[in-house]
Amino acid sequence: MAEKVSILIKNGLVVTMDNKRRVFEEGYVVIDEDRIVEVGKGDPGSKYVAEEVIDAEHGVVMPGFLCAHTHFYGALLRASPWFAKIHPPTDFMQNLQRIWWALDVLLTYEDAYAAALIGSIDFARTGTTMFFDNISSPNAIEGVLDHMEKAVNEVGIRGILSFEATQRRSLEEGIRGVRENERFIKKNNSDPSKLVKGAIYLHASFTVSDDLFIMAKDIAKKYNALLSIHAEEGLVDVFHNIERYGVRPIERMEKIGFLGPDVILVHVVQATDDELEIIKRTGAHVAHNAMSNMLNAVGVPKVPKMMKMGINVGIGNDGYIFDVFENMRTTYLIHKVWNLDPRILTPLEVVEMATVNVAKMFHVDNILGSLEPGKKADVIIIKPELPPTPVNAETVYGHIVNTFNGRDVDTVIVNGRIIMKDKKILTLDVEKAKEYVHKVVEKLWDRLISKGEYQLDVLELVRPKWIYEMKPSRK
To answer: Are the C-beta atoms of 251 and 275 separated by less than 8 Å?
Structure first.
């Protein structure tokens, strides 16, 4: 007797990303409710009766991509005319001062919702089914994650939301940021029905005190939640920690007991070999954002070395370009040219960095990141318009990295629910959402332009007065 199931995907080139990295030509995936029932090769015949049968038409069927790090609100400044009205930043610190810290003080709850809405749509349409986002909005802290959650749920993808706690303006503001994360974690993380979870995010060690590090670690441990922080993206982070604490940022984090398998270090561009050994020893993970590193001109991290050491590295976008294919392609290429070695990174390694590696750092590798029976049904189908060479089991990883793009994604299934089919998002009216977001963005740009160029004293930003009034933790 045939087994009744929700969805049967057939006639696909199934890229499982399982432990054996099996690829099935003429394969199928069986889904019932929110779980994968079977993955196999050939025709399942009369074994199943599905409510919906999807013919992949020889397209690539694979697990949804996961984004290791993003900022939805970064999309709100894309191509803004405001950039032409400020003095061009000459380094990373000026980028923060003149662009991002100028923006974040103006962000409202509506801006946060709009950013999460357009960002989630962009992720969904290009095949990313889970992300880790953090927002910095110092004048919209308490409750802001609920506004973003609403937008993510309207699109129907999976995600981790967090508030970027920082003490660059005051000690109290950083505590409020951590408490907002704690509130959201308590509200969402113990409910298995919720696709959106919480985590704790700290801005960077040059704007965070030891006490806040310890507070964040204690809360994360209490709720078994993830922690993340920008680490050594720019040299300002390194110089500040050496001047104030006598150690580099990752050394400081180890010294106070912050690092561990629950920690995702974002960027890690300036890290020394000794610091990489610390990351390896503590089991912390690294979120690599190649395109953002290029945009901010901060340098190229030692990702190939990290991977050889066994450090888990995943691909993020840092709020810049949301198309995972562009980020994979950049990751694949930048380390070759930086190291003058075309052998560095294989297409398979890069695909792993956008699937199974991120699932591992999110601690969801038991349910996501690959197509296997019992795992959650987060599945995408890619139908490339004009591949120049055959797409088969031998070539598929090369095509994912070198040929495909976000426009090739045809179908997206999250938690067993079809949220995009035939390249059309089914969960909401995309045109109406786009019109709404554009109106919100125009109001934000007007506020930015009317405010004038954002100028703050560098010492006050990098070395707030409170930092010299506190004794470093002896922990």
So the answer is: yes
Distance CA 460, CA 155 (A): 40
Residues 453, 98: contact at Cβ < 8 Å? yes
Does residue 270 form part of some domain?
yes
Q: Quick check: 200 and 185 in contact, CB under 8 A?
A: yes
Query: Do the domain assignments include residue 385?
Result: no
- CA angle (51 as vertex; 8, 37 as ends), nearest 5: 40
**Residues of the chain whose pLDDT is less than 70?**
452-475
Closest CA to 202 of 234, 224, 235, 180: 180
Q: Comparing C-alpha atoms, which of 328, 354, 379, 291 is closest to residue 66?
A: 354
Domain annotation covers residue 41? no
CA–CA distances in Å: residue 308 to residues 187, 260, 311, 312 = 39, 19, 7, 10
Q: Where are the alpha helices (DSSP H) in 201-302?
A: 210-223, 235-245, 249-255, 273-282, 290-296
Specify the pLDDT at position 45. 84
CATH of the domain at 88: 3.20.20.140
Q: Which residues contact 270 (CB under 8 A, 6 or more apart)?
A: 232, 233, 234, 235, 237, 238, 298, 299
Specify the pLDDT at position 458: 40
Question: Given the structure tokens 């990702």, which residue do they identify?
Answer: 303
E strand or H helix at 63: strand 60-63
In three-state secondary structure terms, 151 is helix
Regarding pTM above 0.85, the answer is: yes
Q: CA-based diameter of the chain, in Å?
A: 75
Quick one: pLDDT at residue 465?
Answer: 54
* CA atoms in the 13 A half-sphere facing the CB of 283: 10
Domain housing 271: 65-361
Q: How many domains does the structure of the chain reveal?
A: 1
Query: Which pLDDT score is estimated for 451?
Result: 75
Q: Is residue 388 part of a domain?
A: no
